[in-house]
């Protein structure tokens, strides 16, 4: 269904009620429903989300294997060498006491073998026999099913698919995976004052969000469908631009989220009959952010126009929304001690960039609402509660610059 917006607003928006920052993340995630599951080849699954549990189709390993290069031995030595086994090869005979086979790491252990004598511990006599200390039973042997028995759950539904999981799936006998596709996201950057290249002209500013949003969307788990620029005037231009993104799951609007004469987003949402899930968050910066769903099912995430405030808002609402749309659980945030000369915001959560290590996190300077230096140099955002004190614990949202 294509939903048409009115060209102009007909009534002023209702005054928003600020939602606590921690609750805003939960609301954004909980409102989303993942896309229907589909099956894709392993090569197409990277970055998507498992739509069902991943289970081993056979034992891992599938058979007893040598864990070291050496000799698979039976009974006590010295041992007579019967054969040489390499990974991928087979030997149909059975070892008897006093016999061994030369064996490579990963090769199948022959019947009758009790352990592997490492190559560096073995001595080969002039007659070709092998001597060395008797290894205890099972030494340097990976038993069948030691890593996982057949049917074992290797990863739960909702796991994001990365390189290690792709390799695990292949090891477990899978050629395809059931997945939820990453949500498609279109971005709109609003503002008459923005220049898109070079040094900005007098009275204007360089657009920082246009270049940043595709990478940010990808980092948060979405599929960026591009960025379009929308002037503040004429009135109704934003509605037409949102309508133009009819083939996406989420429309991100940067700017136009406040209550000034050029801020159209909330009026647009009211006129469109949108369902608001979050309308202003009790945080600093970024509080005039908004999350709403249009009657045709598309989501609209409104971010402030100032770059650092927009980054905060994206990690507050857009990230949890995309996580929910992808079928992944909302991750718990690590709590660590945070140090730095910053005052908490009265009645609001204050989001500041930090550099994080094993000892805790230190606040990085340069984090005014329009300045991205601190965020670029840090690797996380610390959410400082109103009662936070220097050195006290705070939750971290990982950003990696």
Structure description:
- With 401 residues, this protein is of the alpha/beta class.
- The protein has 4 domains: 19-35 and 182-325, Molybdenum Cofactor Biosythetic Enzyme, Chain A (3-Layer(aba) Sandwich), CATH 3.40.980.10; 38-59 and 147-180, Molybdopterin biosynthesis moea protein, domain 2, CATH 3.90.105; 65-142, Molybdopterin biosynthesis moeA protein, domain 3 (Beta Complex), CATH 2.170.190.11; 335-398, Beta-clip.
- Helices cover 18% and strands 29% of the residues.
- The chain has 7 helices and 28 strands.
- The longest helix has 19 residues, at 307-325.
- It starts with 18 loop residues before the first strand and ends with a strand.
- It catalyses: adenylyl-molybdopterin + molybdate = Mo-molybdopterin + AMP + H(+).
- This is Molybdopterin molybdenumtransferase.
- Pathway: Cofactor biosynthesis; molybdopterin biosynthesis.
- Its cofactor is Mg(2+).
Number of domains: 4
CATH class membership of the largest domain: Alpha Beta
Categorize the overall geometry: elongated
Backbone CA Rg: 30 Å
**CATH superfamily membership of the largest domain, which one?**
MoaB/Mog-like domain
**CATH-assigned fold name of the largest domain:** Molybdenum Cofactor Biosythetic Enzyme, Chain A
Quaternary state, please?
Answer: single chain
Terminal-residue CA separation: 38 Å
InterPro entries: MoaB/Mog-like_dom_sf, MoaB/Mog_dom, MoeA-like, MoeA_C_domain_IV_sf, MoeA_linker/N, MoeA_linker/N_sf
Protein name: Molybdopterin molybdenumtransferase
Pathway: Cofactor biosynthesis; molybdopterin biosynthesis
Cofactor: Mg(2+)
């Amino acid at each position: 269904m294509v939903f048409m917006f009115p060209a102009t607003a007909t009534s002023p928006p209702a005054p928003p009620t600020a939602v606590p920052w921690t609750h805003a993340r939960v609301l954004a995630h909980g409102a989303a429903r993942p896309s229907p599951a589909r099956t894709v080849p392993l090569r197409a699954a990277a970055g998507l989300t498992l739509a069902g549990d991943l289970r081993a189709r056979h034992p891992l390993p599938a058979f007893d294997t040598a864990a070291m290069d050496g000799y698979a031995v039976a009974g006590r030595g010295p041992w007579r060498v019967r054969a040489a086994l390499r990974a991928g090869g087979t030997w149909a005979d059975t070892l008897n006491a006093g016999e061994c086979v030369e064996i490579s790491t990963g090769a199948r252990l022959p019947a009758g073998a009790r352990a592997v004598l490492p190559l560096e511990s073995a001595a080969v006599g002039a007659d070709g026999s092998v001597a060395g200390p008797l290894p205890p039973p099972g030494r340097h042997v990976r038993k069948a099913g030691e890593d996982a028995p057949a049917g074992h759950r290797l990863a739960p539904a909702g796991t994001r698919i990365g390189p290690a999981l792709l390799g695990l799936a292949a090891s477990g006998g899978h050629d395809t995976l059931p997945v939820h596709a990453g949500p498609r996201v279109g971005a709109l950057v609003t503002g008459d004052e923005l220049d898109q290249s070079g040094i900005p002209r007098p009275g204007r500013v360089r657009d920082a969000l246009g270049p940043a949003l595709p990478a940010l969307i990808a980092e948060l788990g979405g599929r960026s469908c591009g960025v379009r620029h929308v002037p503040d005037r004429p009135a109704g231009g934003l509605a037409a631009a949102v309508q133009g993104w009819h083939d996406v799951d989420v429309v991100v609007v940067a700017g136009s989220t406040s209550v000034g004469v050029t801020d159209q987003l909330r009026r647009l949402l009211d006129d469109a009959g949108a369902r608001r899930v979050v309308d202003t968050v009790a945080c600093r910066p970024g509080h005039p952010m908004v999350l709403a769903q249009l009657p045709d099912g598309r989501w609209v995430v409104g971010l402030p126009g100032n770059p650092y405030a927009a980054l905060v808002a994206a990690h507050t609402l857009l990230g949890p929304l995309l996580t929910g749309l992808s079928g992944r659980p909302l991750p718990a945030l690590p709590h660590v001690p945070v140090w730095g000369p910053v005052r908490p915001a009265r009645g609001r959560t204050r989001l500041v960039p930090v550099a994080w290590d094993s000892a805790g996190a230190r606040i990085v300077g340069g984090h005014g609402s329009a300045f991205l230096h601190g965020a670029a140099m840090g690797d996380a955002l610390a959410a400082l509660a109103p009662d936070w004190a220097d050195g006290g614990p705070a939750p971290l949202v990982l950003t990696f610059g």
